Amino acid sequence: MTTPTPDPIVVLGGGPAGMACALALRTAGQPVVILERYREARPAGNILNLWPPPLKALREIGVDMTGLGAPNHSTFQNLRGHVRADVRIPQHVVDEFGGGFIGLLRPDLYRRMLAALPEGMLRTGQEVVAVEDRGDAVRLTLGTGEQITTPLLVGADGIDSMVRRHLWGDSPKREHRLHIIGGYTFDPVPEARWGELPLIHAATVQGTYSSIRSDGREGYQWWVLEAWDPAAPEPADLLAHARRLAAPFPGALPALVAATPADQVQRWQIRDRKPLKRWSKGRITLAGDAAHATSPYAAYGAGMSISDGYFLGQRLVGVGLADTAAVTAALAAYERPRIPHTTAQVQQAYVLGQVFHHAPAPLRPVRDLILDRTPLLQKQVGERSPGEIIAQLEEMGGGIRQPA
Ligand SMILES: Cc1cc2nc3c(=O)[nH]c(=O)nc-3n(C[C@H](O)[C@H](O)[C@H](O)COP(=O)(O)OP(=O)(O)OC[C@H]3O[C@@H](n4cnc5c(N)ncnc54)[C@H](O)[C@@H]3O)c2cc1C
User: Fold this and answer.
1) What's domain 9-174+272-396's architecture?
2) Which residue's alpha carbon is nearest to atom 20 within ligand 1?
3) How far is the CA of 117 from the centre of ligand 1 (A)?
4) Which atom of ligand 1 is nearest to the CA of 161?
């Protein structure tokens, strides 16, 4: 007599969160598949930076990290080049993780993660339209009407997550009333400083660039960010608009924007959802933007999504999927440390966006005086925030099968 093969865990969504969850669960020894609605898992966007915890997670779940990304040292500056905050990452972390905070192109991350997925793990063209937790299993209904049963559902289905809605009801998107325009170039721009990531704030606009490495080529990505009414149409000529915004900035930014072809420029409205107090219920949980959609001010949304996968895998090592109490306890252990960390990052990213881009005009000189003359920004974004991110490395322990 042969033992029946157990139904695999279903991870819904083939984005960074979904792929990381699936690879981590596999590392944990659990059977798993990813269901993705589109015909392929494809990146929405071009530019990306990653902090050390997701780099550690990617390494642990079998993603080839060779030559991935370029190192960056971040500083917050004013328009005159005065450094308001120096983002400090300990040298041993910089040495261990290819420069600490790395710059890369999003399609490169997708290619590497997709290459790590074993044959058959990713099932594309599978849109899930309904979810029902039946106690001993979760039943999923696909758009085709087909039904699938799984012992555990991980909703990694992005900011408009249907799994989140199913578990916790609808909550409106929070409009930040900001937009970001970003692009990249491999053209030589002599003014650009390799390895530096200056986040420069004018009165209402942020302009930034970062080094990138892609397929062995070295280049730069950049972005400009400003207040924007979400109801207003997008600028007719995106590149021309970005050039206008970048023009007053010192250093390389204007030249980098000028060197960027129009098809390498994109724009996003910035929105998130208010953080949840709980993610999991019964045999269902959340990961990535479904749990903690985050403004790109944090440059950490994909990073937190990848780390979610790592922690989820770690908590599910050795858990019998037939045992509802054990699954529920593992999910509670997964979300317990993740919720405070991701909530703090989501809220900080929101507040920074408001302070830098929505301060009333009469208050801006006071704001800038405080940021220029006091250690406030250094303490918050130069030390506390990277400190919390680096503390994650400790919390991750020795590996998915070797918790701290
Ligand atoms: C301009 C910009 C810059 C950013 N920069 C950074 C950065 O520098 N660093 C960083 O870490 N993060 C950054 N982020 C954030 C990052 O992009 C997101 O946090 C990340 O992509 C979230 O990944 P995810 O897998 O949770 O969701 P998604 O990437 O949205 O993936 C969700 C997947 O689920 C699928 N799906 C949805 N519903 C269903 C369904 N019903 N059935 C089947 N499949 C479904 C979707 O098709 C999609 O493939 C940035 C974001 C923006 C907009």
Assistant:
1) 3-Layer(bba) Sandwich (3.50)
2) 302
3) 18
4) 38
For atom 42 of ligand 1, which residue has the closest CA? 127
Cβ atoms within 10 A of the Cβ of 207, count? Answer: 28
Cα-to-centroid distance, 137 and ligand 1 (Å): 27
Count H helices, E strands: the chain? 13, 17
* Residue 181: per-residue pLDDT: 98
How far does Cα 367 stand from its chain's mean position? 29
Summarize pLDDT for 206-219 with one digit per residue, the tens: 999 999 999 999 99
Nearest to 300 by CA among 120, 102, 166: 102
Q: How far is the CA of 375 from the centre of ligand 1 (A)?
A: 34
Distance of alpha carbon 272 from alpha carbon 353, whole angstroms: 12
Rounded CA separation 271/179 (Å) = 9
Q: Which atom of ligand 1 is nearest to the CA of 163?
A: 41
Residue 335 in tokens: 């979300």
Cα of 183 from ligand 1 centre, angstroms: 18
Domain boundaries, the chain: 9-174+272-396
Residue 137 DSSP one-character state: S
Atom of ligand 1 nearest to the CA of 20: 25
Residue 3 has a pLDDT of: 58
Structure tokens at 6: 């157990």
Residues 59-93, buried b or exposed e (16+ Cβ, 10 A)? ebbbbeeeebbbbbbbbbbbeeeeebbebbbeeeb
Extract the residue ranges of the chain whose pLDDT is less than 70.
1-5, 404
